[in-house]
From TrEMBL:
Keywords: Membrane, Transmembrane, Transmembrane helix. It comes from the Eukaryota. InterPro entries: 7TM_GPCR_serpentine_rcpt_Srv. The lineage of its organism: Eukaryota, Metazoa, Ecdysozoa, Nematoda, Chromadorea. The gene is WBGene00279665. This is G protein-coupled receptor. The chain crosses the membrane at residues 12-34, 46-66. It comes from Pristionchus pacificus (Parasitic nematode worm).
Length: 126
């Protein structure tokens, strides 16, 4: 029974790691495009919020999806998973990233709401 659970766990976690890696690569690519000098709208507040959100998403994916999956699969040394310092750093990164994701979602919604409800003021500000 235990072996079946481990097999099921690894069959779920390995694709999760792959999905996390692909998502990190896409977020890094979008971040690079937004921050590049050739991107004409990079000074727009919406794209600033998006860039900050991508950074938070990358931190969150590294800490949660990849970090915890590696530990659950036993791909990390026991020293790393059994120390309280590593656990505290991981939990801080998760808390920081999740709060940042929430804030960027709220700011994105406010930004879009201002662009729709007050288009003249929004164009002057950007």
């Amino acid at each position: 029974m235990r072996r079946a659970v481990e097999r099921l766990e690894s069959s779920v976690l390995v694709p999760l790691i792959g999905f996390g890696v692909v998502t990190i690569l896409l977020a890094a690519l979008l971040l690079h495009v937004i921050c590049s000098a050739r991107f004409k709208l990079r000074h727009n507040s919406f794209f600033h919020i998006c860039a900050i959100g991508y950074v938070f998403n990358i931190i969150s994916l590294l800490a949660l999806d990849i970090g915890k999956s590696f530990a659950a699969l036993g791909w990390m040394p026991a020293v790393v998973t059994q120390t309280t310092a590593t656990t505290r750093i991981l939990h801080f990164a998760l808390f920081f990233a999740r709060c940042g994701e929430l804030h960027t979602t709220v700011f994105t919604a406010l930004n879009r709401m201002m662009a729709i409800l007050l288009p003249n003021r929004y164009d002057q500000a950007n």
